[in-house]
Write a structure and sequence with these properties.
- The protein is an alpha+beta fold.
- The chain has nine helices and eight strands.
- The strands form three sheets. The chain has a three-stranded antiparallel sheet with strand order 1-8-7, with no helix packed on it. A three-stranded antiparallel sheet has the order 2-4-3. It has a two-stranded antiparallel sheet with strand order 5-6.
- A hairpin with a 6-residue loop joins strand 7 and strand 8.
Amino acid sequence: MTEEMTPIGLKEGMKFNCNSQNECFNDCCRDLNQALTPYDVLRLKNNLGMSSQDFLKQYTSLHYGPVSGLPVIEFKPNPEAGYACPFVTLKGCLVYEDRPGSCRMYPLARAIARSRDTGEITQYFALIEEPHCKGFGKETGQTVEEWLQGQDVNKYNEHNDKLMEVIRHKNRILPGKLEGVLSDKFYLALYDIDEFRAQIVEKELLKGLDIPEDILTKIKIDDTVLLEFGIKWVNHMLFGHKMTFGE
């Protein structure tokens, strides 16, 4: 399958419309090779009322990124279902309110660049025009920026950008495959967050670390705060970065 990527700006019109009336409806949810970010896993397991451990075991497979050497989580491939997403139905997505960030972005690709001087992130977008998709060329009156707001994708991008920073540091400081205990810690804190919380509460995983009491209280009850903390903890465990709070 061939595809074209056409650069597009935030203020440009989004000539694309996906809805159930399109003849290709749900085709993009099949023949998948889809990675899930930590925030994707958090939202999906909560939508389904599952623990992170049960969700990961039932719906995902683990491999290592060829460049980063970090654990990568993907939906389990199911050739009998045409490699379809496990949550797609004829009527649409069963977990639509908590669908992964890549589903929300489609048909856009997003890249970022961070300024070394200011730390400011610049976003770049492109349209991915796949032959099977019949949603292109349809006027909606929306700009790319307005379309993205409607997809509620900013939260996902904020969390995923923090993950990209970890990957950037990993590639620079620890090239190659992440092995053994370090790999287990990365997986635990960022994907299996319910087990991460259990080890914090029941096994004193953070013993010896100076963590503010209000943070400890929040991570016991708030998955999003726990994931944000997990990013800091991974940066500390892998790279020796000091954990700071309240910024």
